[in-house]
Amino acid sequence: MLEVKHIAKYYGNNKAVSDLSFTVKDGEIFGLLGENGAGKTTTFRIIMGLIDANEGQVLLDGREINYNTTDRIGFVTEERSLLTKLTVLEQLKFYGVLKGLDERTIERDIDNWLEKFEISSYKNRKIKELSKGNQQKIQFISAIINHPKLLILDEPFTGLDPINVKLMKEAIYTLQKEGCSIIFSSHQMEYIEDFCEKLVILVKGHPVVSGMLKDIKEEYGIKNIMLRGEELPLEKIKKVKGVISVSKVRGEIEVKIEDKSVAPKIFSLVKNFNITKYDLVEPSLNEIFIEKVGGIHE
């Protein structure tokens, strides 16, 4: 289990991270979100022991992270960090040796992962000859060749098409089943919603939202109603107190409301019409992110 306890990092008078705390249990996928410059990269560097926090503590399985424990951590960076003149086999062997694995174990695991990612035929190809998507797969395998106890994923799906995203997701779920603690960071909120039960949203290094995703959504409340039907009384709906907006979205009518107490008023207006859909939609993480982060900038 990873424990981040009240960490803070200052650069002069600038607070890159301020009083940040969270835990990631074994086999849990945790979301760390924020705009560019919010403090995510600084947090990753503190967790991996690359820089020291000015305050607080980071523990992996109850022990402070140092040179002796970093081999148990995998990190997939947003920017590729591959040795492009090496072959795929040479690259992965190199990282396996750095992680303290013996050659027989490395070669067995390389074959296994290349097969899972459907790129066994590229084993002896140079990295620079691969597509960006296949390079991303190699970067991922390099990070997890040692079956890490903690895995940090920073925009891991960059450059991948939907088929390869599916392969990557399957690999992440495999590591989760092995008990790996995973921190997932992405600007694509649908991926966070797919993977993460718990999350933190950072603004200028300070956590502004923290907790279980289902609780965060419940606290935010129902704010959308999706309607489909014939000759709906849109002008009357717009005049209902608590209705924020009425718009067409992909052939349906989206009614944004202040809170779920407005929903019965909308239903009373449309129930006698030929409606084929009336759906109270829970907020998306994207909506919550924009409201929480955008409101702070105003």
Commentary on this structure:
With 298 residues, this protein is α/β, with parallel strands linked by helices. It has helices at residues 40-47, 88-98, 103-116, 132-144, 162-177, 189-195, 213-220, 234-238, 263-270, 285-297; strands at 2-11, 14-24, 29-34, 55-60, 63-64, 73-76, 150-154, 181-185, 198-203, 206-212, 224-229, 243-249, 252-257, 275-281. Helices cover 35% and strands 30% of the residues. Strand 12 (243-249) and strand 13 (252-257) form a beta hairpin. The model has no long low-confidence stretch (mean pLDDT 90). It has two domains: 2-217, 3-Layer(aba) Sandwich (Rossmann fold), CATH 3.40.50.300; 222-281, THUMP domain-like (Alpha-Beta Plaits), CATH 3.30.70.1510.
